[in-house]
Write a structure and sequence with these properties.
The chain is of the alpha/beta class and 379 residues long. The protein has 2 domains: 13-25 and 274-378, Alpha-Beta Complex (Aspartate Aminotransferase, domain 1); 27-271, Type I PLP-dependent aspartate aminotransferase-like (Major domain) (Aspartate Aminotransferase, domain 2). It is built from 12 helices and 14 strands. It has helices at residues 27-38, 55-68, 88-99, 114-122, 139-149, 170-183, 238-245, 248-253, 258-269, 273-299, 324-333, 363-378, and strands spanning 13-14, 82-85, 105-110, 126-133, 136-137, 153-156, 186-190, 215-220, 232-235, 303-304, 313-318, 336-337, 339-340, 353-357. The strands form 3 sheets. Strands 2-9-8-7-6-3-4-5 form an 8-stranded mixed beta sheet. It has a 4-stranded antiparallel beta sheet with strand order 10-11-14-13, with helices on one face. Helix 1 packs across helix 9 (258-269), helix 3 packs parallel to helix 4 (114-122) and helix 10 (273-299) runs parallel beside helix 12 (363-378). It binds pyridoxal-5'-phosphate. Pyridoxal-5'-phosphate (PLP) binds next to helix 3.
């Protein structure tokens, strides 16, 4: 088996893998939800579905998101403003199909989620990267890029970013939105990690601004339930949703995955997802702390990093220049792996960075992985 997303040679600890552990995928909860769904004499979910997704699922999801996003009581998330997707990857592809043309410019963060770069490349988009600091995108730098490149899209991962772990501050969210409005740029917010916060609480998601014509907010069940569900959602104002619903694929095939969505609808109606997300937060917080402790113990003199307040990743910077090829060879010999910084750069930079994930392995393996990484870095 070999896909970009998944293959670890036996015996190797791959600290780069950005997946949930198999043991954390809630098979019993999904079995319970599926039994609930099949007990109903309702075949709608087996038919072609409405373009935005079934109204029952959208209502259940809207209620869940209103609670999880702490939406103001006067402005809850509305089912009408939601569209189901096959996950953020498919949503990005659909957005590119409907709202861009080859040659258009997309601005991304440096660093950014490397597989989004693949999707933008599939659509012939020109990628320009915008710098970040510890508070996320830097508005002044972004403003200059908007003037220079007239982009069609801004792609941002505002909360617990992949790979940097950085969260865009509340003040900057407002500034970034204002800039996108002023320059007529579509702000695509990938909020895949927003609900996985372990310390404090993040600023409100762009999803709560999704009635603004400038914003499309993306969410996913991949990291809060199971990637194999291939289910996510998109929030946008009515005109954008109408354009997406008129997409050829939806026009022909109807809304995305009505059957899978109906099982998740039962999960939501049985009120099982909130507790599961709380369990994931506790589990990942402990794993993050274990990875942080191991890095301080074994690699404190070699790497520096900020402790992320949520998400999946620690983004480490080597204190001395790295030779990527030599390190890869040494890591293979030590049976450990990581994701090298340049993958997350749209311009071949970030050579001294490593992305390490604390979601996939339990504490003992994280510690052993760091020991091996220390051996590789020392050799
Ligand atoms: C930032 C980001 N966006 C999107 C995805 C993929 O999301 P989905 O499984 O919903 O397609 C990932 C998965 O690692 C991610 O880290």
């Amino acid at each position: 088996m070999s896909t970009t997303q998944y293959w670890v040679p036996p015996g190797v600890i791959d600290l780069g893998l950005g997946h949930p552990s198999l043991s954390l995928l809630p098979q019993p909860l999904l079995a319970q939800a599926a039994r609930h769904r099949f007990a109903q004499d309702d075949r709608d979910a087996l038919q072609y579905g409405p373009e935005q997704g079934g109204p029952g699922m959208r209502a259940a999801l809207a209620a869940f998101l209103s609670a999880q996003y702490a939406a103001p009581a006067a402005a809850p998330v509305q089912g009408d403003g939601l569209m189901l997707t096959n996950g953020i990857s498919q949503a990005l592809d659909m957005i590119c199909t409907v709202f861009t043309r080859p040659g258009d410019v997309v601005i991304v963060e440096e660093p950014t989620y490397f597989l989004a770069l693949r999707i933008f490349a599939d659509h012939g988009l020109r990628v320009i990267s915008a710098p970040m600091d510890n508070d996320g995108l830097i508005p002044e730098a972004l403003a200059a890029l908007l003037v220079a490149h007239h982009p069609r899209l801004l792609y941002t991962i505002p909360t617990h970013q992949n790979p940097s772990g950085v969260t865009l501050s509340a003040q900057r969210r407002a500034q970034v939105l204002e800039l996108c409005r002023a320059h007529d740029v579509l702000l695509v917010a990938d909020e895949v990690y927003h609900l996985l916060t372990y310390t404090g609480s993040p600023p409100p998601p762009f999803a709560l601004w999704a009635d603004d014509p400038t914003v499309i907010a993306l969410g996913s069940f991949s990291k809060i339930l199971a990637p194999g569900m291939r289910l996510g959602w998109l929030q946008a104002p009515p005109a954008r949703l109408a354009a997406l619903a008129a997409w050829g694929v939806t026009a022909s095939g109807g809304g995305m995955s009505p059957f899978t969505a109906s099982v998740v609808q039962s999960l939501l109606e049985l009120d099982l997802l909130g507790d599961h997300v709380a369990f994931l937060r506790r589990t990942y917080r402990a794993r993050r702390d274990a990875l942080v402790a191991a890095l301080h113990t074994h690699l404190g003199d070699r790497l520096r990093f900020a402790v992320p307040t949520g998400g999946y990743f620690i983004w480490a910077t080597s204190r001395t220049p790295l030779d990527g090829e030599r390190l890869a060879t040494a890591a293979a010999a030590a049976q450990v792996d990581f994701r090298a910084g340049p993958r997350f750069s749209s311009r071949g930079g970030l050579r001294d960075n490593l992305r390490l994930c604390f979601a996939y392995y339990a504490e003992a393996d994280l510690e052993e992985g760091v020991r091996r990484l220390a051996r590789a870095l020392q050799s």
